[in-house]
């Protein structure tokens, strides 16, 4: 077994990247089994929402479960970066519904999944059909959040 040493680029006291020393020396291609390579790439995180439609009365709440799955094919080891699941809606839906705050999830293992639960309350004056979108963001290398996927659901208030 070859022991890999890591080189860390430090600029102004901040460590930017950990690069395997063999990659620096040989110019080796990305190794899919190298956890450092896996952590530096984003994508392959798929959300699904259940149920797709929920019927509620004014003043009551609809509950949804968003399951976030790590479906990366290029990274068979390691976990994803931290994930945030948020709820977005158009202006009329934001006036009629009380949207919850974002839910943070820790990293998800290869081919694993984690649920995020949301409770969306219909205000007393709400009536009609409203669409909401659950947006999954992953913290990318460097701290910036990147949108990975969206799942849509409908709330019928009657």
Task: Average the pLDDT over all residues and give the rounded result.
Answer: 78
Could you name the CATH class? Mainly Beta
Unreliable spans are 1-11, 15-29
Rg over alpha carbons: 20 Å
Strand content: over 45%
Q: Which shape, going by the Cα principal axes?
A: elongated
**Counting H and I runs of at least 4 residues, what is the number of helices?**
3
Distance between the termini: 65 Å
Give the strand tally: 11
Percent helix:
10-25%
CATH superfamily: Immunoglobulins
Strand order of the largest sheet: 4-11-10-6-8
Q: How many distinct folded domains?
A: 1
CATH architecture type: Sandwich
Largest sheet: 5 strands, mixed
SSE string, helix = H, strand = E? EEHHEEEEHEEEEE
> Could you name the CATH topology?
Immunoglobulin-like
The secondary structure category is mainly beta
What would the keywords be for this entry?
single chain; 158 residues; mainly beta; Immunoglobulin-like; five-stranded mixed β-sheet; four-stranded antiparallel β-sheet; 3 helices; elongated; disordered N terminus
Short description:
This protein has about 160 residues and is mainly β. It is about 10% helix and about 50% strand. It has a single domain, classed as Immunoglobulin-like (Sandwich), CATH 2.60.40.10.
How would you characterize the overall build of this protein?
The structure is a single chain. The protein is mainly beta and 158 residues long. It has one domain: Immunoglobulins (Immunoglobulin-like). The protein is 11% helix and 51% strand. The strands form 3 sheets. It has a 5-stranded mixed beta sheet. The termini are far apart.
